């Protein structure tokens, strides 16, 4: 009786231990199999290191500069790619500074009204929630032209800029809301440059796009460089004053902003 009272609990304990061990081995085998398929190694520790290293590796920009730049320079012989690339980076730096300091005055003069309104909205959301977003120590790895879009009298050039920086958001008590204050974030930003007509003669249509209208009848001027209105014949060369403005900035998680 005494031995049976000892043996039965031991048998139950052993059976439970065997079940737990079996579950552990099964889960480990599944994890190793997943790690082998996803990362090329069954070593889970190495897979975790690969994920961490990947998140700290500069993002590669698969630009279309070689394809689009000749087209742009045919349409705009004065277009200096190196100058506008530097200007795009300058706009992005001012964007980071304005959001971090919650100060619109830090945006540089290349920013359009549309971009200023966007930054104003971001700052307003931060202030309404009592949040503080810091974007600092930015390194620009690569800048390329990603798209060249022509829509009637409107032309847009979209730059892809690969950036590494610290980017995190805290509440008023210093609690981390988003990001990691001890780890750099690698991401890609779309910075859109738009060829804008004389701002006294343009009307918005469809978001950030801007189009030129005839000064006489108000009909849209459909083609870049058009000298006469298709509807009334009025010359439009005199209102063909154009300038470049940066219209928008978006990063890969723009649609996931939680504030």
Which short descriptors sum up this protein?
259 residues, alpha+beta, 5-stranded antiparallel beta sheet, two-stranded antiparallel ribbon, 7 strands, elongated, disordered C terminus
The count of helical stretches stands at: 5
Uncertain parts: 198-211, 255-259
From the spread of the alpha carbons, the general shape counts as elongated
**What's the average pLDDT?**
78
Record field, number of beta strands = 7
Oligomer: single chain
Largest sheet: 5 strands, antiparallel
Order of helices and strands: HHHHHEEEEEEE
What Rg is obtained from the alpha carbons, in whole angstroms?
28 Å
Distance between the termini: 69 Å
Q: What proportion strand?
A: 25-35%
Quickly give the structural class. alpha+beta
Helical proportion, percent range: 25-40%
Can you walk me through this structure?
The protein has five helices and seven strands, in the order H-H-H-H-H-E-E-E-E-E-E-E. The chain is an alpha+beta fold and 259 residues long. The longest helix is centred in the N-terminal third of the chain and has 38 residues, at 2-39. Residues 198-211 and 255-259 have low confidence and may be disordered.
């Amino acid at each position: 009786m005494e031995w049976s009272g000892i043996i039965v609990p031991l048998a139950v304990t052993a059976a439970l231990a065997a079940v737990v061990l079996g579950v552990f081995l099964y889960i480990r085998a599944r994890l190793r199999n997943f790690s082998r398929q996803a990362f090329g190694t069954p070593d889970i520790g190495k897979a975790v290191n690969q994920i961490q290293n990947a998140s700290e590796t500069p993002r590669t920009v698969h630009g279309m500069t070689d394809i689009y730049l000749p087209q742009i320079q045919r349409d705009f012989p004065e277009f200096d790619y190196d100058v506008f690339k530097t200007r795009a980076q300058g706009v992005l730096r001012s964007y980071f500074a304005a959001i971090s300091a919650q100060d619109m005055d830090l945006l540089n003069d290349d920013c359009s009204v549309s971009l200023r309104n966007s930054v104003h909205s971001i700052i307003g959301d931060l202030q309404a929630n009592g949040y503080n977003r810091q974007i600092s120590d930015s390194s620009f790895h690569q800048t390329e032209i990603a798209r060249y879009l022509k829509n009637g009298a409107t032309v847009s050039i979209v730059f892809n800029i690969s950036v590494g920086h610290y980017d995190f958001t805290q509440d008023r008590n210093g609690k981390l809301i988003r990001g990691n204050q001890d780890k750099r974030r690698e991401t890609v930003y779309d910075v859109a440059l738009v060829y804008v007509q004389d701002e006294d003669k343009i009307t918005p249509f469809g978001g950030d796009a801007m189009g030129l209208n005839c000064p006489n009848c108000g009909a849209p001027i459909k083609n870049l460089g058009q000298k006469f209105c298709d509807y009334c014949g009025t010359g439009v060369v005199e209102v063909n004053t154009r300038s470049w403005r940066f219209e928008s900035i978006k990063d890969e998680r723009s649609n996931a902003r939680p504030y």
